[in-house]
Write a structure and sequence with these properties.
271 residues; mainly alpha; two-stranded antiparallel ribbon; 9 helices
Length: 271
């Protein structure tokens, strides 16, 4: 419990750093996001047993850092094209590689790097409010998980998905959902009334809808990555974050939630 709280506080500090310094130090946020992407992809490779297949892992790790660090543009598309050619040509260069290894490597790299790069897209799209959008995405993902953990500890009796994640409960699920929505609304109110002193107007109906469905997507993301761990026969993706496991154990729901929030704010104005 203590280790989990320490790691949770570390995540909260990262979220606060993004809120207050994301606009003034964009390159630093890009580099941090790129580092998270590389670590997450590397953890996925480790549990899949392909991290030591250098012909696949090294180009993939390099590619996974590029998009979060530099964003979309012609150079990313050139790199994506070259990377795709290399990964599929690897079957010719090393005939012992299986289709399963190729597609696991390629899928994990693309999904994680593209999803996490939405942190940068959110920040840049929102301009002066961009870091607030990022904070909302992190808030929805992390507080849903944290709320579910503590509510499950206190009230949990009925298992949610015992074959995939035995510790998750129905009570924890609804508790996490409620805490995620309420926390997102509170963060929005603080942003409107304290940081901007009432000079902006938050669309709380849209925020509520976004947070509710975002919390559901967060649970889905968590369960999907739990299923991956179970199929790979591991408890955690790593041990970098005490009480949580690896980077991917902390960012598994973020991988699903951040693209959703980016799509939502592109379609529906929340400010």
């Amino acid at each position: 419990m203590r280790k989990r709280i320490i790691s949770g506080v570390t995540g909260a500090l990262f979220a606060i750093f993004v809120l207050f310094f994301g606009q003034s130090h964009p390159a630093l946020i890009n580099l941090i996001t790129a580092l998270i992407s590389v670590l997450a992809v590397n953890e996925m490779f480790a549990v899949m047993g392909i991290s030591k297949i250098w012909i696949l892992s090294v180009p993939s790790l390099i590619f996974s850092a590029f998009l979060p660090a530099f964003g979309y543009g012609i150079y990313w598309y050139i790199l994506w094209y070259a990377y795709s050619l290399w990964i599929f040509s690897a079957m010719i260069l090393k005939p012992s590689l299986t289709l399963k290894q190729i597609f696991m490597c390629y899928t994990a790299t693309i999904v994680i790097s593209v999803s996490l790069s939405c942190i940068i897209l959110l920040r840049d799209f929102g301009q002066e409010y961009g870091c607030f959008y990022v904070l909302l995405a992190l808030c929805i993902a992390w507080l849903s998980d944290t709320g579910a953990y503590f509510c499950g500890k206190l009230f949990g009796k009925n298992k949610l998905c015992p074959d995939i994640s035995p510790k998750k409960t129905v009570e924890g699920f609804f508790g996490g959902l409620s805490i995620s929505v309420l926390s997102t609304l509170c963060a929005s109110a603080m942003f409107e009334l304290i940081i901007h002193k009432g000079n902006i107007q938050i669309n709380y109906v849209a925020i509520t809808i976004m947070a509710l469905f975002g919390a559901l997507i967060s649970v889905l993301g968590d369960l999907c990555f739990s299923a991956i761990k179970r199929k790979c026969g591991v408890k955690d993706f790593g041990s970098l974050m005490p009480g949580h496991g690896g980077i991917l154990d902390r960012f598994d729901s973020v991988v699903f939630v951040v693209p959703y929030v980016y799509i939502f704010v592109r379609l529906i104005s929340i400010i």
